[in-house]
Amino acid sequence: MDSDNNNKLDVDYSVRKQRGNKSCLVTALFISFGGIVLIGILAAIAIPAFQKYLARSKAAEAPLVVGKLQFQAIHYFETSSADGACQFPPSANPVPEGQECCENVGPSGGEEWTPPAQTWRQEGWKALGFEKNEPSYFAYQTINKKTDEGNDLMELRAFADFQPGGPRHTYSVTIEGHKNDQGECVANAQAPVVSNDLE
Question: Which InterPro entries does this UniProt record tie to the protein (predicted)?
Fold first, then answer.
């Protein structure tokens, strides 16, 4: 009788052990699958956020360079003319003089771009003392124009195509210059404008 009870206990223990092993396996599979799903969700959130962070870090170049151009353009307007004629330097493009600008010009896909060396020989760039021979995330352009009232304007523009085929990310500052009541040349920059942010 005791031996029958012992055999029965051994069988019950072995059945319980097999059931326990199966439930451990099911639990382990459930946890593994849940972990994979969780990693997928985190990646779906983190990867686009990281890509946006990278684009923002590249876009930080434009305000720095345009700020330098702004300083130089204001200085040129206020000090360059001995005869009292207030004027900004001539327009300058991100391509050498005589080449078509600016439809397919400049960096694309968030990559760096180096304009041809002849670009910096334009009078507009020379007047501003500006030359950028190292790779850049933006193409730069200055546009000399007039307001309806006849005041001088200079638009300083940086543009890049972070997402090829779409509209270009553009950072621009417009400077308006005029003669004040004392006959002095005075230039003031307007607030920067960002168009098509990170596109």
Answer: Pilin-like
Tokens standing for 193? 């404008």
Q: Which residue has the tokens 């972070």?
A: 162
Which among 97, 157, 90 is positioned nearest to 128, based on CA atoms? 90
Digit-coded pLDDT (tens) for 121-179? 999 999 999 998 899 999 999 999 988 888 899 999 999 988 887 788 899 999 999 88
- Which tokens hold the place of 50? 């990281």
Q: What does the block give as tokens for 27?
A: 């639990």
Give the CA radius of gyration of the chain: 33
Backbone phi and psi for residue 145, each to the nearest 5 degrees, phi listed first: -150, -175
* Structure-block tokens of residue 139: 């193409």
Q: How far is CA 171 from CA 67, 74, 97, 142, 181, in A?
A: 11, 18, 23, 12, 32
Rounded Cα distance between 109 and 139, Å, is 13
Task: With beta carbons less than 8 A apart as the criterion, state whether 58 and 162 touch.
Answer: yes
What are the structure tokens assigned to 118, written together? 């002849």
Which of helix, strand or coil describes residue 95?
coil
* Chain segment 39-61, per-residue pLDDT in tens: 777 767 777 777 677 777 788 89
Model pLDDT for residues 63-117, shown as the tens digit of each residue: 999 999 999 999 999 987 666 788 999 999 998 888 888 888 888 888 899 999 9
